[in-house]
Amino acid sequence: MSQAIDTLWTTSNAVETVTSLPVRGRRTEQERLTQWVRRHVHRNGGGILWIEGAVGAGKSRLLACAGNEAALAGARVLTGAAVAGGPMTPLAPLLDALTVESDDLTEDLSTRARQEHASYRVLREVAARLRELTRDRPVVLLLDDVHDCDDLTVLALRTLSTQLAGLPLLWVLTSRAHPDQPAVQSLRRDLFSRQATQLELPPLAPEAVRQMTQDLLGPQAAAAGPYLRYLDGLPGTVRQLCAYLQDVSPTDPCGPAGPAEVREVLTWLVTRRLDQLTGDARELVLIASLLGDSFTVQHLSQVLARPEAALLAPLSEALAARLLHAGDDRLSFSHAPLREAVAGTLPRPVRLSVRRRSVEVRLKAGVPTVSVAADLIGAVEPGDAWAARILRNAAQELAFVAPGTAVRYLAHAVQLIEDICPERQRLSAELLPLLWQTGEITEARDLAREVVQTPPDPVTYAQVCLELARMGSQFVVQQPEAHVRHVHRRRDVPVSLKDQLLSITMLNRLLTGEVEEAGGAIAESLMRTRGVHPVGELTHRTLQSMSAAHRQNWADAVRHAEAAAAGIAHLDPAQAAALPEVALTTSWRASLLSLSGNDHDARDLAEDGLEEAQQHGRQALLPLWHTAHARLLLEAGRLAAVSRELAAAEEVIRATGLAFTGEATALYIRANVAFHTGDDAGIDACAAQADAFLESGTPQQRRIGAWITLLTSAYREERLTDRQLTPSLQHLRHGFLHAAVVDPGDAVLLVRAALASDFHQVALTAVEFAEYRSQRNPAFPLFAAAAAHARGLLDGDPARLTDAAEGYGSTRPLLGAQAWEDAGALLSAGNAAEARACFGRALEQYETCSAERDIRRAHSRLRKMGIKPAAGAAASDAGWRGLTPSELGVVRLIAHGATNRQAAERLFLSPHTVNTHVRHAFEKLGIRSRVQLARLYLQEVDQPAEVAS
C-alpha cells in the first residue's frame, strides 16, 4: 500500500496521483508545514503534526509535500494510509509504513495482529522497529486519513507517540475535520494535550479557485465558470470538475453553459461528493435535500425515524464535507442548486414519499398549514385526497392576503381530484373568485361554465352566482335575474347568502344605470333580507347613497356612505380589501368626500386602495382604483398624472382581458384630459367610442356617449342640434357615473355649449337644474359655485362669474380658471383692466394644471388686448427644469430676494397662488428651502440682480 520513500508516494485509495506541486491558495499552510518539518529534522528531534480539513481540502497533497521536504532534509520517510469502507487488517496503515526491508516480516506482523492475544507483542515489535530506524537518521512517519483507521491503529498511534516521544521521530497525521469516531476524537484530544501542532485547511478563496482552474484547464477554464461557486473552495473537488470537463470535451468550451448542461455537471459533482461520505451521512444528506431550503435537526430526526443522538456522527460528517451548513438553530445547504442536484439523484417515488412524510411530521408538530402547503406542490400524485384538503385549507387562509399563492394551492387541489364530482366542483367554486381577483380571466370563465352547468348543491350554486355578480360580468350566467330569483326561492340556501347576492345584483344594476328597473320583486326581497349579513348591509347602504345622489339629495348620500364606511370598519381588514363591494363602496365614498371639499382624504382613500391591490396582486380591482384615482386627480387639475393612471388601468385590462364596468368613467376622464390639453387624436378616439356607446343597450353608456359627443363637438367648435343637447341633461340629472359623482361643473359645460349653438331653452333648463341642486344641498359649496357659474354665463353677469371662481377655490382649479376666463370675456368690452386681471388669473391656474389648450387660448385673449403675460418676462429661463411659465415667474422673483407677498404684488397674484407655485417648484426641483432655490436658479439661469421694490 505504501513504502519508505525519498520521493512521492501514492495511496491505494486515491483517485489520482498526488504530486508535491504547490496548491493554489495554500501558500501559508505549505510554508508552515515546510518550516515545521525542516526545524524538527535539522534539530534531530521528534514531534506531532495534525493536519485536518474537509474532504477534498488537499490533505493528501500537503502530506506528500511534507514527505518531500523531509526527504530533502535527509530524513527517512515512511508512509501509510487507511482505507475507507470495508474490512481492514488491524494495524495495516502502520505495518504498511514499516515495509522497508522485508515484506515477509510485515506480513508476519499483520497475521499476528489479527490475533487479539498477540496485539500487545506486535505493538512492541513495531515500537522496536521504529527505534531501530531512527538510529542513523530522523524518521518522518506520514499517516493519511486517520479517521478511517481501525481502533487498534488508533490505539497504537496514541501509545507509540508517547513511548517514542524522545526519539527523532516526526508524526504527520491527516484527518477530516471534526472526526466522529470516538477513538479518533480521543486520540486528537490526547495529542493536543501533549502540544501537538495543528494545521487546519480552510476553503480556498474564490480567486484561488479560479486560478487553479486556469492552471488545470488552460484555454478551457471558462467552461468551469458556472460551477466554481458550488465547489466550496475544495481543491480536490476543483480537480474532479476539471478532469470531468476535459473528459466530456465540450464543443464550445468558451460558450455559456445551458441549463441542461449545468444540471448534468452539478449532478456529477454531487454524486462524487456523496460517494466520499459514509452510508449514514449519505442517507442523511439525501433526505435533507428534500426538506426545503432549511430545516431543524429535530425535523430531520422525525423524518428519518431515528433519535437525534444517532444523527450526530453522520451530521458532523456532512458538515465537515461542507455539503450542509449550520445556522443558529437550523441546517441548510450552502447552495440551492446543489440541494436540487442532490435531490435529483433520488428516484421520483422516493422524493414523493419523503416530502409527504416531511409534511405529515410538520403538521403533527403544529406547523401552520400555510407553511407546509408549498412542499406538497409536485410531491403528491393525483387522487391524494389528504393532500387536496391540506392545500385547500392553506388556500382558504391565504385567499385574502395572498390570492396569487392561494390560486396556486387551490388549483393544484382541484387537479388532484381527477373525476368530476361534488368535491371537485366545490373546490372549483372556491377557486373561481381567486382566479378573477388575480386577473386570470380565461381560466375563471372556463371554470365558471363548468360549475354552473353541474352545481354540486344549492349552496355552492348560490355562492357561484354571488361571485359572478361580484365580478360585474355575467359571462356565463344567462338571464341573471332568473338565477337570482331561483336562489331566493330556495329554502336550503342561507338567508345571509341570499342577502349578499341580492344586494350586489342591485348595485350592479345601479352602476349600469338601470335605476328605473330597481324596483319590483327583487327590491322587495332586498328590503326583507337587508341586514342579515354585514357585507350585504354595507352594499345596501351604498345603494341608498347612490339612490339619494340620483334624487339630488346629497346630504343623505353622504350619510349613507359614512354608515357604509362604518360597516367596513367592523369587517376583517384582510377580507374586506378583497371584496368588490367594499372597493366600490370606498371608491364612491372617496368621490363624495371630494364633492364635499375634502380632496386630501378622498385621494388618500383611493391611493390606499390602489396600494393595497397592487401589494396583494388583486388585478381585478386595479382598473377601478386607477380610474377612481384618475377622476380625483382630474378634479384637482393634475392632468399629466391623470393620463398615467388611465394608462395603468388600460394596461391591466389589456393584460388580463378584464371586462371593466367602469369603462364609461374612463372614457369621460380621457375625453376631459384631451379637451384641456388639446389632444386632437385623443378627442377623435373618444368621439369614435362615444358613437359606439350611443348604440349600446346599457343606459349608462348611452348617456355618457351623448355627453362625450357634446364635449368633442365643443372642442371642435361645432354647432350642436337640439337632439344632441337634450340627452346630455340625463347625464347631469343621473347624479353619478359608475362609482363616481357627476362633476358639478358639467352643468357649466352644457350651458356654454347650448349658448354657443343658440339653444337658450336648453341652457335655461341646465341653469335651473344647477340652481335647484344647489338650493337642495346648501352644505355643498361646489354646487353653489357651479350654479353661479352657469347663471353668470346665461345672464352675462361677470360678478356672478367672479363669485363662482372664488367659490371653486383651490379644489377645482380648472373650473375656477374657466370662471375667470368667462368673466374676462364679458369684461373685455367695457373694463379692460379687470378683464386683463381675470385673464391673468385664468392663465395662472391653467398653467398650474398644464392645460395646454386652455393656456394657448388665454394667451391669445391677452395678446388681443395688447398684453404679454407677466409670467413670460424672463425669456431666458422659459421651460427651465419643467417649470410652468407661472412657476418660473414666481421663482425668478423669489430667487432675487422677493418675499411671497412681494412676488404676489408684482405679478398681480394672490399670496395663496404664489405659495402654491413655490411649493410646486420645490417638488419639481427636488429642493427644500428658498436658499437652495435661489442658488440653483442663479447658477443655471441668471446672475444675481437687485429687484426694485
Descriptive report:
- The chain has 949 residues and is mainly alpha-helical.
- Among the domains are: 176 residues, Rossmann fold (3-Layer(aba) Sandwich), CATH 3.40.50.300; 52 residues, no CATH class; 126 residues, Serine Threonine Protein Phosphatase 5, Tetratricopeptide repeat (Alpha Horseshoe), CATH 1.25.40; 80 residues, Arc Repressor Mutant, subunit A, CATH 1.10.10.
- It contains 46 helices and 10 strands.
Q: How do the strands and helices of this protein lay out in sequence?
A:
Layout: H1 27-42, E1 47-53, H2 59-72, E2 76-81, H3 92-97, H4 103-113, H5 119-133, E3 139-144, H6 151-163, E4 169-176, H7 182-193, E5 197-201, H8 206-217, H9 235-248, H10 259-275, H11 279-288, E6 294-295, H12 297-304, H13 312-320, E7 324-326, E8 331-333, H14 336-344, H15 348-364, H16 369-376, H17 385-398, H18 403-416, H19 422-437, H20 441-453, H21 458-471, H22 480-489, H23 495-511, H24 520-529, H25 534-550, H26 554-569, H27 573-578, H28 580-595, H29 599-615, H30 622-635, H31 639-656, H32 663-677, H33 680-694, H34 699-715, H35 722-734, E9 736-737, E10 740-741, H36 746-756, H37 760-776, H38 781-795, H39 798-808, H40 813-827, H41 832-849, H42 852-864, H43 885-895, H44 900-907, H45 911-925, H46 930-940
Parallel strand pairs: 1-4, 1-5, 2-3, 3-4
Antiparallel strand pairs: 6-8, 7-8, 9-10
Helix pairs in contact: 1-2, 6-7, 8-9, 9-10, 10-14, 11-13, 12-15, 15-16, 16-17, 17-18, 18-19, 19-20, 19-21, 21-22, 21-23, 22-23, 23-24, 23-25, 25-26, 25-28, 26-28, 28-29, 28-30, 29-30, 30-31, 30-32, 31-32, 32-33, 32-34, 33-34, 34-35, 35-36, 36-37, 36-38, 37-38, 38-39, 39-40, 40-41, 41-42, 43-44, ...
